[in-house]
């Protein structure tokens, strides 16, 4: 096993549980005899290149313990796309600070960063252990059953749709529809999870618009009309990245980030929910609402799932264990146990298989008509989100 210092970074969008993974790495790294100092990158790899480094082992014990329930990214984040000219700079800094262990917590783009850094280090004959720790509310990382952060975000979105659905039901004489937008560029895991809110046929949501299926205007109008005739109001949940069959974002956004990802929230009025709202109003003359949460499900710790916090911490500790075992170039994964009841253990996936790829929902999780989910998906997501509240409805007992 290598002897030297370790450094930890967080990048990309936060989650409610990302700091629990950070705490897991810190705790396990402090216990590791071959890791001397436990350092942190302030603002990800971008901050590291500016030598913005903190001593994590020197933190008060209460702070490290508190990370396990604190939302957002305690180290600060970045969305820096690693350039070829960055790599020699980073290697020199790793040498300067005798860093032999790099742990990065993040999503697809973060896994690309650690993969390229670990690969470049080998080419330069610099012994380095690089381990990725999964994080994304989008749940779109390959190789893992689910990602830390997804269960809590899914619960946030499901509760929001459930409560907004009760409001929409009772206000249907005023507003005939509501559109709820979820984050997620290419994968519909979050909007799909809101199907858990539907405990009876009338309950929201009625229509799911998922990025895995093309948004066909005429079919969508037919679905809206059918739901309105049946329930007197329509609840729609859409993914921010839904596209027309021609590949045009329904949001009409054309802004892209440094990783060439469409920035759905960067255009002010450009969003899928607003576009859908306009379509329905124009086609049916309905009055309605749209609700766009943006980053709220990424930091809503009050709706966090304890299972999620615990698994995030486990992933952090497991990353250090893999390093102790001499592994490198891998991402920690979560593997669901077989049989009845939910159980989960950690595993690993090669960073080369994970980096810059999005894992869409499989076909067996999406209904045949493409506008809802199957029972198989409900079985998959229910143990992650946990029990939801039961809301009552007045019985239709007329007074005579």
UniProtKB/TrEMBL annotation:
Signal peptide: none annotated. Its EC number is 2.7.1.90. InterPro entries: ATP_PFK, PFKA, Phosphofructokinase_dom, PKF_sf, PPi-PFK. GO terms for cellular component: cytoplasm. This is Pyrophosphate--fructose 6-phosphate 1-phosphotransferase. GO terms for molecular function: 6-phosphofructokinase activity; diphosphate-fructose-6-phosphate 1-phosphotransferase activity; metal ion binding. Pathway: Carbohydrate degradation; glycolysis; D-glyceraldehyde 3-phosphate and glycerone phosphate from D-glucose: step 3/4. Diphosphate binds at residue 13. The record marks 135 as: Important for catalytic activity. Its cofactor is Mg(2+). The gene is pfp_2. Substrate binds at residues 136-138, 240. GO terms for biological process: fructose 6-phosphate metabolic process. It catalyses: beta-D-fructose 6-phosphate + diphosphate = beta-D-fructose 1,6-bisphosphate + phosphate + H(+). The record marks 109 as: Important for catalytic activity and substrate specificity.
